[in-house]
Known about the structure:
The protein is α+β, with helices and mostly antiparallel strands. The chain has helices at residues 52-66, 99-106, 111-130, 180-183, 190-206, 216-225, 231-234, 240-249, 261-268, 284-296, 299-323, 327-342, 350-365, 369-386, 391-407, 411-428, 434-449, 453-467, 473-495; strands spanning 4-6, 11-13, 19-21, 24-31, 36-43, 76-81, 87-92, 97-98, 133-134, 143-145, 151-153, 160-161. Strands 1, 2, 3, 4, 5, 6 and 7 form a 7-stranded antiparallel sheet that branches. Strands 8-10-11 form a 3-stranded antiparallel sheet. Strands 9-12 form a two-stranded antiparallel ribbon. The chain is globular. The relative contact order is 0.06.
Amino acid sequence: MTEQILGGGRYRLSSPPVARGGMGEVWFGHDVKLDRPVAVKFPRLPGGAHDRELTERFVRESRITARLEHPGVPAVFDVGTVDDGRPYVVMQRVAGTTVEQLVAHGGPVAVGLAASIVAQACAVLAAAHRAGLVHRDLKPSNVMLCPDGTVKVMDFGLAVALDDPAWVEDGAGTPAYLPPERVAGGGSGARGDLYAVGCVLYELLTGRQAFRADTEHETLARQVEHLPPSPRQLRGCVPAAVDRLCLQLLAKDPRDRPTDAEGVTRALLPFATGDPARGDPLDPMRLYAAAVARVAVLPEDRRNADLVATVTTARTEAAELLRRRSGDRAAGLLQATLDDLTRAVEEDHPDLVDLRVDLAEALFADGAYSRAAGLFRVLTADLARLRPVDTTAGFRCRQQEASCLALSGEPIAALDRLTGLLADETSVLAADDPRPYMLRRQIALLELGMGRWQDAERRLRALLDDIGRVPGLDESIGTDVRSDLENLRAGVEEAR
């Protein structure tokens, strides 16, 4: 095969390509001008088309990636196009072992190493998400452990902007790591990346894919329908908190996954132990990292690590108590932990906010509706101030407050809250997002409970018509709505 030359003779590519996948192919090459090795990636664009719009989009997003300037992201050196219009990106060539190779050769890795790798990968994702980028194709072959112990997340040259609607429809991604909402044809944004993180963590902890199947079709079906055995079931040494986090990352509903990548990193840091590097302990990069650690690990950082460990333990134990239907004990544990920690850190500390959310949910589960409603109301305001981009958590708190009001005998106030929430969800969420439709059903059921049968029936019929126009919604919600209408009609006939 003839050697390929790009960039007006600057880049000479060796042949054949060193990797091919659903997202494109990678070639190793040499930058003649600066005399350094490089990696060149050609993306797989939707339908194989190389039109001007797609090329411009790829170049624009590659430039955004180049501005990340994160040590966990291979540097982007250049972008360009070949004669047929196909774009390419020239990146730093990284040496190391991918997670795929690590697991293939050695099976499950030590929990401390798994936590370290995934915590670093999530720190990279946190930076990308703050920059408005979503990876879309995170998988073990794209997470590389370098000889100095650092982790690099590969393929950010193919990331896309979170505000670009075109990416939802291009079908990019690898079936074994594709979130269920993407399988169904929708978009998931940053939380789709977190689902892939869960798949990678699962593989590191167990040595097997979470959704392994013989064909691509079966793999995609398992993403939507299958719940894998927990890592702790397969490997008893996995700590309960890590096991719970992994399963939370793999939640089918994006709303049930962690709020952000930064939170996942914080949750894993207490478990990231040992030395993940394999190689010369006097490697210059390892010496550099050790010197940085001497400066970076200050008493405040140790205190934060202790805080994270305390919060993680309390939340894990409370979740187990709730599973055993001991809401009062879960609420007591969370409240005691909050009381202890608020003396040491500010109330707005992210971990304490998450702890307060868990406390409100525990109070709800225990039937302490009045107290839970007040806490959900305060949390709604706090989340709007502290996490304005994350509408999911705020919407959840508003809905839970309304549920508390309804259950504590204040249906009119509950209806007012739900109506306002519906207006906000409808204006923010995508047309195929199931949440506004489920909220409309909740409003109808509340109206039914208030004796407003005609209002409830009109709302349910309009809801049934609307969900029938959105692919995938009828199957998940329509059955319940039809059942509600049948029960309503039966109730009306019985009353007559």
